[in-house]
Amino acid sequence: MNEQSSAACVSVIVPAMNEADNLPHVFATLPDWIxxxxxxxxxxxxxTVAVARRLRPDLRVVVQTRRGKGNALIEGFQAATGDIIxxxxxxxxTDGREIRAFVxxxxxxxxxAKGSRYTPGGGSDDLSPWRSLGNKVLTxxxxxxxxxxxxxxxYGYNAFWxxxxxxxxxxxxxxxxxxxxxxxxxxAGLLISExxxxxxxxxxxxxxxxxxxxxxxxxxxxVRERAHGPATTPQTQVALAK
Length: 242
What we know:
Elements: H1 3-7, E1 10-16, H2 23-28, E2 36-41, H3 48-55, E3 60-63, H4 69-79, E4 84-87, H5 99-107, E5 112-116, E6 123-124, H6 129-146, E7 158-161, H7 165-168, H8 177-187, E8 192-196, E9 198-199, H9 211-228, E10 239-240
Parallel strand pairs: 1-2, 1-4, 2-3, 5-8, 6-9, 8-10
Antiparallel strand pairs: 4-7, 5-7
């Protein structure tokens, strides 16, 4: 057992639906010191589960009970047994080798390690100008309404201490899950550090993301949380992980 895994048990959650062709690449990037990998299968019509089990015999599989990325992640979080939970995508866009930076950030004192494509060292091969503009507008709105200093609201590469799950109190089904997590982490007064991350293009298949539809869901989430959530505390100021 190396230094990383001896400090805390790490669970990686991988929501997947029809990602059999992408999983060999995704799993190949996962560090060997990870303690637990949970695949949340969205009732795939291909060999996603069989491929995943062949690649990683110690894999745990959770079969999703509803639909949507948010629901998949929530069910994966509930099944996790690790001290630290890391969420990555199954399409090859997130690099498992970056998990070390997220875990190091948490071990250094952060409660929530938030991936960002817009900090030095981060980037994206996939963001269109339209999606990037929408993300920046929604990020700016969130910063104004909640007193945060986020650079990248709508990115799904994040890690956090499992003990904070109750404070996050997640309750959404769709792609707005990342926004909800970021806002509720701030509302809960968690210490949040941004971690530079480079997003890659999906390797195979077609994304279920729809910029207009999902952007609207994110906006509604922001407005709802501002109307009903508590005020942000000073602890929510975002620091860039070194």
